[in-house]
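Table S2 (continued). Query chain:
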Amino acid sequence: MGLALSKEGGRGVSHLGWTLGWSQGCSRPNLLPHSPLSTLKELREMIQLPGARPLLDPVDFLGLQDRIKEAPRPRKRLTELLLRTATEKPGVEEAARQALASRAWGLRFFRSPQQVLPSPDGQRAAGIRLAVTRLEGDGEATRAVPTGDTEDLPCGLVLSSVGYKSRPIDPSVPFDSKLGVIPHMEGRVVDVPGLYCSGWVKRGPTGVIATTMTDSFLTGQMLLQDLKAGRLPSGPRPGYVAIQALLSSRGVWPVSFSDWEKLDAEEVSRGQGAGKPREKLVDPQEMLQLLGR
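Corresponding output:
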């Protein structure tokens, strides 16, 4: 993900992520009209952003109404707002406000960034090449796949963000290295009875906090269904005692909640000196030193 800035006085910013900027065209990797790109509050504020108007192509939303009928409530409300903004004629006051707007932001759906294009002298960015995608699959299995077509989006500056991708942590747990997720069926890990997944390792780095909450609830429902149906192992389980012994045998010292509280207090203390709520600790070695490890 990243940000692409055009040469037209800073008025054409294309965001290749789900935080939006001034734009004549925004694009997120495999951004789909029904994928959560922000919170509902953030989207409302952006639509009413002073001095700016939204640009959404109604073609991108064809057939979307049927797709979101069974969607979780947060995703459904967000998508409905996008749908209304893209397809409905604004009221008199809103139309007048948009007519006076000197800037515009937009979303380019079904596009995935492929390449930063250089200027003729090779010294600066001149554009971003986007792959055109289409949807395949249904429900949670829906994926955006390349059609073979590309589009070039002019820009003069590209800022990349850190990004995120899950990694496998145990060879006994199946893992899709290409997508960065654990293969599953409604949260049930494939071929590993009694093991479940949720969040970004389940669906990839998409959505907001409410999306992850809803996702976790759905996985929890599957777990309860299996528990009631007798599909889960019964009898006593060793629990934390066994985990603690395993970590100790490997020379691993876990960070406890009281340890976290010490780090939290240190961050708050450092932040007060700089006039901020906290100053984040980002070096793991420094954290361990503060904990006396």
